[in-house]
Specification:
Layout lengths: L6 E4 L7 H11 L3 E6 L6 H5 L3 E4 L5 H9 L6 E4 L14 H26 L6 E5 L12 H21 L5 E7 L2 E2 L2 H9 L13 H8 L9 E2 H12 L7 E4 L3 H7 L8 H8 L1 H8 L2
Parallel strand pairs: 1-2, 1-4, 2-3, 4-5, 5-6, 6-9, 7-8
Helix pairs in contact: 1-8, 3-4, 4-5
Length: 282
């Protein structure tokens, strides 16, 4: 009798993103993949490969419940869905910022709670939370996004302890720079602008360029290579509790143990804050 395939469910699998790349890599590795997205029509690339796709809005209790009913068993849950929010702290729209936390933090907890009964039945269950190297890095204009990832990272570490008695492994996926459509989506869907009266108004052009993430456009490890490395890590008999993959991941990992402020100059230059500082001081 053949051994049944291990199964994995991945959230946020729209074509061109990291979730889609993970779905393809897991499928190639022989897993039964449940690729999910809020809008299934955005997963046509995965459907064409024969990968099972399902609708799942991680901010909807009914959507989560409907998805759980369609999954007979589950070995790996990958919480990948998420979004960005870029704005100086002085100009944050708090209501919009709370929506990001609902997606990047509480949505994942809701999914974990819903699928936990299935994972408890698996002999080798793993929960993977996609955080970011941003969880370790203070970046100008990215405080809301990075702090949401830092919150998820700490929740992930606590969950790792809490689920050890049940034999479920919990992994924090600290992803670096990966070449996906994320920057394109920020530019096309949100096109962030400074509000009227911002203290950064004199340097509006420079700041808004940073908000559009132009410095990362076309940069990073290929999504395919990143996904294959991550899937390889997760297939180890004892997966790392923190997986560092993607461009600059190793650098941020080293930076996290070095004296605070050592990379301030590089970060200011990367985000244009050095130019902003010159302008506002005139």
């Amino acid at each position: 009798m053949s051994t049944p395939k291990r199964s994995v469910l991945i959230t946020g699998c729209s074509d061109g993103g990291m979730g889609s790349a993970l779905a393809i890599a897991f499928n190639t590795a022989g897993f039964h993949v449940y690729a999910t997205a809020r809008n299934p029509s955005k997963m046509t690339g995965l459907t064409s490969l024969g990968i099972e796709t399902l609708q799942l809005d991680i901010q909807s209790e009914s959507s989560i419940a409907d998805c759980v009913k369609k999954i007979p068993s589950l070995d790996i849950l990958v919480n990948n869905a998420g979004s960005q929010f870029l704005m100086p702290i002085a100009d944050i729209n708090i209501a919009e910022a709370k929506k990001l936390y609902d997606l990047n933090v509480w949505g994942h907890i809701a999914v974990i709670q819903a699928f936990l009964p299935l994972l408890l039945k698996s002999p080798n269950a793993i929960i993977v939370n996609q955080t970011s190297i941003g969880a370790n890095l203070a970046m100008p204009f990215q405080a809301v996004y990075n702090s949401s990832k830092a919150a998820l990272a700490l929740l992930t570490e606590s969950l790792r302890f809490e689920l050890q008695p049940f034999g479920i492994k919990v992994v924090d996926l600290r992803t670096g720079v990966v070449n996906t459509n994320l920057v394109k989506n920020v530019q096309e869907n949100s096109d962030p602008k400074l509000p009227a009266g911002s203290i950064y108004e004199p340097a509006k052009e420079v700041v808004e360029k940073a908000l559009r993430q132009e410095q990362f456009e076309g940069k990073g490890m290929s999504a395919r290579q990143w996904a294959e490395l991550v899937v390889g890590d997760l297939q180890k008999s004892n997966p790392p509790r923190v997986i560092w993959r993607g461009d600059s991941a190793w650098l941020v990992r080293v930076q996290s143990v070095l004296p605070s402020g050592l990379f301030d100059g590089a970060i200011k230059k990367m985000t244009g804050l050095d130019v902003v500082e010159q302008i506002v001081k005139k």
